[in-house]
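Comment thread on ticket #2218

A.B. wrote:
> Attaching the input chain for the structure job we discussed in standup.
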Amino acid sequence: SGRYTKIGRLVSFNLFVGNFSDTTGTGAIQIGIPPFTTQSATQSHVVVMTRYFDISHRSITGYLTDNGSIMTLYQNGNGANNWEQLSHDNLSSGSAYVRASGVYYTN
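C.D. wrote:
> Ran it. Output below, let me know if you need it in another format.
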């Protein structure tokens, strides 16, 4: 569930996603965002709060794809201190959830 507000080209949103059915797959966790695509070359990041993620106390951020409507979750702190995508096998329970808030520009 979620809410968004669009004023001119600026979109702000809050969302809640839970009850994941896939907790073993290796595909990236991607979440659809409000019905407006992001502006190209904006590299928008999203504040994220999670529960039941097996990430060893690493930080998580959401990244909005350029010219898209998908948020991908990333974790920091792998062996080379690079960001890497979170996958469904990072979920430690089907009760895992994501709360996110963000702002981005649309074309």
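A.B. wrote:
> Thanks. Noting for the ticket: The first strand starts at residue 2 and ends at 7.
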